Amino acid sequence: MTGEKTFGVCANWATNIAxxxxxxxxxxxxRKSPPVRPELLKIxxxxxxxxxxxxxRARRMIVKVNPATGEVSVTAPTRRGLSAALDFARGERExxxxxxxxxxxxxxxxxxxxxxxxxxxxxxxxxxxxxAPVWAEDGMIWVRGREAHAPRRVLDFLKREARKxxxxxxxxxxxxxxxxxxxxxxxxxxxxxxxxxxARALSFSWRLVLAPEFVLDYVVAHEVAHLRExxxxxxxxxxxxxxxxxxxAAQDWLRTNGxxxxxxxxxx
Length: 268
What we know:
This protein is α+β, with helices and mostly antiparallel strands and 268 residues long. The chain has seven helices and 13 strands. The chain has helices at residues 16-22, 79-90, 93-102, 150-177, 213-225, 234-243, 247-257, and strands at 3-8, 26-29, 35-43, 46-54, 60-65, 72-76, 114-117, 120-127, 134-137, 140-144, 183-187, 194-197, 201-205.
């Protein structure tokens, strides 16, 4: 779980996204509010970037440390509270430092790194020649070309693999539920695993290709099921369970390991 500390502040609950969700026009899986602005905070003698966020649905001031990436954020429930957010974080410097010491840190997609692909560890290695600029084979991800270009090439490869898997699974599950998505996209996002819009467009995080296949299968099934039910009613969950029998195991896996997927592809 993300480490967090809170400070009680009265908050308003109405937001545009909340209104859309309650009206059944938009759904996201594991949504978070976007960062508002970066600020600098001195922790243990070094300047650290802190993301200050506005979330009218928050009930209090919250400071968080992402245990996978070490990203520090402060959420304020009102715009008036934004000016006090950094002061709140300053008051928690000792706690933040302790959380940062526990964070394993980001993993760049460079030569020599070990990353998961569909739940299996793969070492990124340089190749003088091969069938493609990047390919996976026998527990290795081979990369041709200059070493400096390897991270970008590996990232592009992972996104292509994620898109291929998400499209295939989306169409398979959609056929079983007799629905048709209008569009299927893969994006670079840390805030959600998947989403389904009122326009029947499905979107997924490319990082899901790092997870075991049954996890990706569940997330895709979850979003496809929203093409039938734009809610989380018993009928919705019945659809999900019908097409994703490993639903509970996948939910447990994401709850325990999901944050760790955010380590990969982060610039350092």
